[in-house]
Amino acid sequence: MKQIPENTLPKPPQHTAQLQQRIKQLETHLASENPQLLGVVTSFRKLDKIAYRLGLLNTDQSYATEVPWWPLISILGTFSAGKSSFINYYLDSELQLTGNQAVDDKFTVITYGRDGTSRTIPGRALDADPRFPFYGISDDIEEVEKGEGSKIDTYMQLKALPSDVLKGKILIDSPGFDADDQRTATLRITDRIVNLSDLVLVFFDARHPEPGAMKDTLRHLVTEAMERADSNKFIYILNQIDSTAREDNPEEVVAAWQRSLAQNGLTAGRFYRIYNPNIELQIEDETVKARFEQKRDADLADIQERMDQVEVERAYRIVGALEHTAKQISENWIPMVSRLRSKWRRFILWGDGTLLSAYAALAIWYTLRSEDSVATIMESLPAPEIIGGIVAATILITHILVRRTSTKMIFSWIHKKMERGEEQQIMLRAMRKNTSFWSPILRKSPSGWSRHTLNRVMNIIGDCDTHTQKLNDRYTMPSGIDKSAADRDPASPENLGAESEETTPQ
To answer: What does residue 401 show for φ and ψ, rounded to 5 degrees?
Structure first.
């Protein structure tokens, strides 16, 4: 049998002090910024306890820390598509290099800086700080490209800027995207950023109206994105559209892009057309110029509004992540663990039965081949107590050997049949618990799973509706009446109506 490297097995739990401190910091932040989400953290804690018992999580892990609690906006796009220029316009600062001199191929994480000075900080600051959503990303890079994990500074950097528009959110400027030439590690980072983001702005360059020549890039940025459950978070932007103003047929340029994107799956949603407002549009026809500017301003306003709304979207997305994880446990992971455990049980029972049957067959064969009678053979044997001990020891040793072999077989099967990634690691952790020496073989359900546990998971799923309602109470008001304000204001129509009812003679 193929030997499984030791470092591919799930690591045992580490100290949890850092994790608990991280969650406490999160609760402190939410208490002042978004108290409605404090209950969500409590629900995550409940789900963590269930996952610990099931072996789905190590005790130094938490589902709460796998969710970015700060709104995240990522900006992707092809080379020279004007991503950095757009960021500078949004921040009202020349933070990012633009133009031909912009040769930076790093992912730039942009966040609010408190000391009044813009700073550039190495990528290791992101990899080592659990408060950022890129904590431990060097491990992901190492998985896909050996030796690259230690070079995190060549892939990422952190920039801090004292800009009010950055308060409460994180921006990410990505290198120019080309699916054909992109390194595997870069694609892995891109995918992780997209998964974490609340809003993804995808830029294309109107100066290069050749969408048909970039099939792989469009497939990665459009086709695969449209197949996602959260495809509504993608915004597609044709930038530098001012270059088409000098064309005889600017509408055809836009139409070519629209057709190409539609062929790749973008059949719904907005397709924005913008250019840098700081650039003077060189058009003699004032009517045409006004039309370009009006379209640009309208689209920029829409984009900015979406960016300003990410805090609200993030709150609902966090509740959705909680519900999704709870359903994953009950509907996907537990059935999968059950199947793997059944496979492991069959390996053991088949192995035990085969070897014990072989022992019995060997004993019968020896008796039949022996020249001595059965009575003579029985008389030559030791005392029954000794024989019983030998038989028991043989059965126990056989069972231990079969159990170890079966455990190796199940881990080998997981490595061979399951694609490397989060799900594989979850199954490895769970089966480590389910194949421990003290795990009973005859038990069919996974270790730690019962009807009571299922009810606890369903209660957490039910809590998600309550969390959503609390968010609705904060952000919506179908009646148009602020009851809290009415309670404070005795002159409000509600209170005046109540007074008149009380003072009206019966």
So the answer is: -65, -45
pLDDT tens profile 439-487: 888 788 899 999 999 999 999 999 999 999 988 888 776 666 665 554 5
Helix 422-434 vs helix 334-369: angle between axes, to the nearest 10 degrees?
Answer: 50
The CATH number of whichever domain residue 98 belongs to comes to 3.40.50.300
How far apart are the C-alpha atoms of 133 and 426, rounded to whole Å?
A: 20
pLDDT of residue 15: 47
Contact assessment for residue 143 and residue 184, using Cβ atoms and an 8 Å cutoff: no
Q: Residue 301's pLDDT is what?
A: 92
Section 386-404 average pLDDT: 77
Within 8 A by CB and 6+ apart from 142, the residues are 148, 149, 150
The mean pLDDT of 216-230, rounded to a whole number, is 76
Give residue-wise pLDDT tens across range 155-168. Answer: 888 888 888 888 87
Answer with the one of 259, 274, 308 that is the final residue of a domain.
308
d(CA 312, CA 474): 10
d(CA 120, CA 313): 29
For residue 414, give the 3-state DSSP assignment. Answer: helix
Residues 347 and 441 grouped into a single domain? yes
- Tokens 């107590």 correspond to what residue? 385
What SS3 class is residue 437? coil
191 and 137, same domain (yes or no): yes
User: What is the structure's pLDDT at 459?
Assistant: 96
| Residue 492 counted as domain residue | no
User: How many whole angstroms separate alpha carbon 285 and alpha carbon 262?
Assistant: 32
- Strand order across the 72-77 sheet: 119-122, 156-161, 107-112, 170-173, 72-77, 199-205, 234-239, 271-273
| Model confidence band, residue 13 (pLDDT cutoffs 50, 70, 90) | very low
Domain extent for 442: 15-67+324-474
500, pLDDT greater than 70: no
φ/ψ (deg, to 5) at 272: -90, 150
Report if residue 41 sits inside a domain: yes
| In a shared domain, residues 63 and 74 | no
